[in-house]
Structures are given as C-alpha cells and as structure tokens.
C-alpha cells in the first residue's frame, strides 16, 4: 500500500529531476575590452549551436528603448566603463534565456565584478549549470588598439575612445580579474591566448566545445 509519505516523496523527486533537467547550460566568456569575446562567440554559435548573449549588447539594447527607466543609468555606466547594477543585467539575461528555445548559452562579458557574481549566484545559481569560464588573455596595448580601430571603423560605440577605454581597463583589472581568479581557484577557467589571428584562436577554442 502506498502511504501519503511515499506519494509526497515520489512527487518531490519527480519535480526535482524535471527541474534539474531544465537547467540552463552556461559558459561565461571573459577577457578585457577588445580581447575578441564577441568575435569568437559568433564562431562558436555557428559551429556548436550555442546562443550568444552579450551582457553589453543587452544593456545597449535596453538603453536604446524609448521610455526605458534605466536608459540614462546604463548610458552613464557604459561611458564611464563602470558596471551596471546586477539586478538590471541579470534580469535582461534571464529574460533572454527564458525566451530562447535552446538551452546552451554563451554569456559574454559577465560577471564583471563581485556585485555581478553574487547577484547572479543568488538569482540564477540554482537554475544554471556552469560548464566553464572561457577566458581570453590579451595585452592591454593590443586590446586598446583593437577598440580604437573598431571605433574608427564606425562601431558607433560611445566607449571605443581613449578616455572610456582607460576606465574600462581600470574596471577590468580591479573588478573583473579578481572574479576570474576566483573561478580559476575552482578549476573552472580555460585560458586562451587572444593575441593571434581569429582562426588560430578559434581552433583552440573549438577543442573546448568538441
Ligand atoms: N556592462 C555592464 N555589465 C555587464 C556587461 C557590460 O555594466 O555585465 C557595461 C560596462 O559599462 C562595460 C560596457 O557595458 O564597459 C561594455 O561592455 P561590453 O561587454 O560590450 O564591452 P567589451 O568588453 O566587449 O568591449
Ligand atoms: Mg563585446
């Protein structure tokens, strides 16, 4: 005879396994401004069918919406190279993940500081399975030149100029590197030398997804 306890425990185990199966697979993609995160993500999408979510692109999209209550706040942070509060970024990321039919996500340019890291873990930690952190290393001079070239070629970005870039690098060194080091200590970081040409880098990246 089934008693009530057995039924309740079966239901709870079934619900638990359904929830577990529905977890989002996530790869965080980090590296300095201009390291090539976006470029490599596009290639990973093409070859391995991931969904690319750039936190910066989502914020720029939100900023561009007429009537967005966060437009000005986001604009200020982007020009200053500082980090938008996690509640905003996390909500945009979660919405994009919920709206996607796929389950494998490259989250590019996030988490960038302690506030991002803690906010994400609190809201999304249980709903996601973090596969690894893809980390592109690139010397500051190379990254700066790439962003300036991108600006000169008409990226239209308000932060591809020397003043914003200095601030973005400060934030990267002071706020983002400690997060990468933290993931490193957990054995989650896969480091890629991003100074080479795009295809050479992608050959190495591909091995991590194959
Ligand atoms: N940004 C943020 N939170 C994020 C991602 C981006 O506040 O999670 C802001 C931040 O001001 C950053 C800017 O958006 O400097 C541009 O980020 P993006 O990732 O697009 O720049 P990239 O590093 O790719 O050049
Ligand atoms: Mg980018």
Automatic annotation (TrEMBL):
<keyword id="KW-0963">Cytoplasm</keyword>
<comment type="function">
    <text>Catalyzes the phosphorylation of pyrimidine nucleoside monophosphates at the expense of ATP. Plays an important role in de novo pyrimidine nucleotide biosynthesis. Has preference for UMP and CMP as phosphate acceptors.</text>
</comment>
<dbReference type="GO" id="GO:0005634">
    <property type="term" value="C:nucleus"/>
</dbReference>
<keyword id="KW-0547">Nucleotide-binding</keyword>
<dbReference type="InterPro" id="IPR027417">
    <property type="entry name" value="P-loop_NTPase"/>
</dbReference>
<feature type="binding site">
    <location>
        <begin position="82"/>
        <end position="84"/>
    </location>
    <ligand>
        <name>a ribonucleoside 5'-phosphate</name>
    </ligand>
</feature>
<feature type="binding site">
    <location>
        <position position="116"/>
    </location>
    <ligand>
        <name>CMP</name>
    </ligand>
</feature>
<feature type="region of interest" description="NMPbind">
    <location>
        <begin position="54"/>
        <end position="84"/>
    </location>
</feature>
<keyword id="KW-0665">Pyrimidine biosynthesis</keyword>
<feature type="binding site">
    <location>
        <position position="60"/>
    </location>
    <ligand>
        <name>a ribonucleoside 5'-phosphate</name>
    </ligand>
</feature>
<keyword id="KW-0808">Transferase</keyword>
<dbReference type="GO" id="GO:0005524">
    <property type="term" value="F:ATP binding"/>
</dbReference>
<keyword id="KW-0539">Nucleus</keyword>
<dbReference type="GO" id="GO:0033862">
    <property type="term" value="F:UMP kinase activity"/>
</dbReference>
<feature type="binding site">
    <location>
        <begin position="34"/>
        <end position="39"/>
    </location>
    <ligand>
        <name>ATP</name>
    </ligand>
</feature>
<keyword id="KW-0067">ATP-binding</keyword>
<dbReference type="GO" id="GO:0005737">
    <property type="term" value="C:cytoplasm"/>
</dbReference>
<dbReference type="GO" id="GO:0036431">
    <property type="term" value="F:dCMP kinase activity"/>
</dbReference>
<feature type="binding site">
    <location>
        <position position="157"/>
    </location>
    <ligand>
        <name>a ribonucleoside 5'-phosphate</name>
    </ligand>
</feature>
<dbReference type="InterPro" id="IPR033690">
    <property type="entry name" value="Adenylat_kinase_CS"/>
</dbReference>
<feature type="binding site">
    <location>
        <position position="196"/>
    </location>
    <ligand>
        <name>ATP</name>
    </ligand>
</feature>
<feature type="binding site">
    <location>
        <position position="168"/>
    </location>
    <ligand>
        <name>a ribonucleoside 5'-phosphate</name>
    </ligand>
</feature>
<protein>
    <recommendedName>
        <fullName>UMP-CMP kinase</fullName>
        <ecNumber>2.7.4.14</ecNumber>
    </recommendedName>
</protein>
<dbReference type="GO" id="GO:0006221">
    <property type="term" value="P:pyrimidine nucleotide biosynthetic process"/>
</dbReference>
<dbReference type="GO" id="GO:0006207">
    <property type="term" value="P:'de novo' pyrimidine nucleobase biosynthetic process"/>
</dbReference>
<dbReference type="GO" id="GO:0036430">
    <property type="term" value="F:CMP kinase activity"/>
</dbReference>
<feature type="binding site">
    <location>
        <begin position="109"/>
        <end position="112"/>
    </location>
    <ligand>
        <name>a ribonucleoside 5'-phosphate</name>
    </ligand>
</feature>
<dbReference type="InterPro" id="IPR000850">
    <property type="entry name" value="Adenylat/UMP-CMP_kin"/>
</dbReference>
<keyword id="KW-0418">Kinase</keyword>
<dbReference type="Pfam" id="PF00406">
    <property type="entry name" value="ADK"/>
</dbReference>
<comment type="subunit">
    <text>Monomer.</text>
</comment>
<comment type="similarity">
    <text>Belongs to the adenylate kinase family. UMP-CMP kinase subfamily.</text>
</comment>
<feature type="signal peptide">
    <location>
        <begin position="1"/>
        <end position="21"/>
    </location>
</feature>
<dbReference type="InterPro" id="IPR006266">
    <property type="entry name" value="UMP_CMP_kinase"/>
</dbReference>
<keyword id="KW-0732">Signal</keyword>
<feature type="binding site">
    <location>
        <position position="150"/>
    </location>
    <ligand>
        <name>ATP</name>
    </ligand>
</feature>
């Amino acid at each position: 005879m089934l008693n009530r306890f057995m039924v309740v425990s079966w239901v709870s185990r079934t619900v638990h396994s359904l929830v577990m199966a529905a977890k989002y697979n996530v790869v965080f993609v980090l590296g300095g401004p201009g390291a090539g995160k976006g470029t490599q993500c596009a290639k990973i999408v093409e070859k391995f069918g991931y969904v690319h979510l750039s936190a910066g692109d989502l914020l720029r999209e939100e900023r561009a919406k007429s009537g967005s209550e966060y437009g000005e706040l986001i604009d200020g942070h982007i020009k200053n190279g500082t980090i938008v509060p996690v509640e905003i970024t996390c909500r945009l990321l979660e919405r994009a993940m919920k709206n996607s039919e796929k389950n494998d996500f490259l989250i590019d340019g996030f988490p960038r500081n302690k506030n991002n890291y803690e906010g994400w873990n609190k809201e999304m930690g249980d709903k996601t399975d973090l596969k690894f952190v893809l980390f592109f290393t690139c010397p500051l001079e190379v990254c700066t030149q790439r962003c300036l070239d991108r600006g000169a070629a008409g990226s239209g970005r308000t932060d591809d100029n020397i003043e914003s870039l200095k601030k973005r690098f400060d934030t990267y060194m002071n706020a983002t590197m400690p997060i990468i080091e933290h993931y490193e200590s957990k054995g989650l970081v896969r480091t890629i030398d991003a100074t080479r040409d795009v295809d050479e880098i992608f050959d190495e990246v591909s091995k991590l997804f194959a």
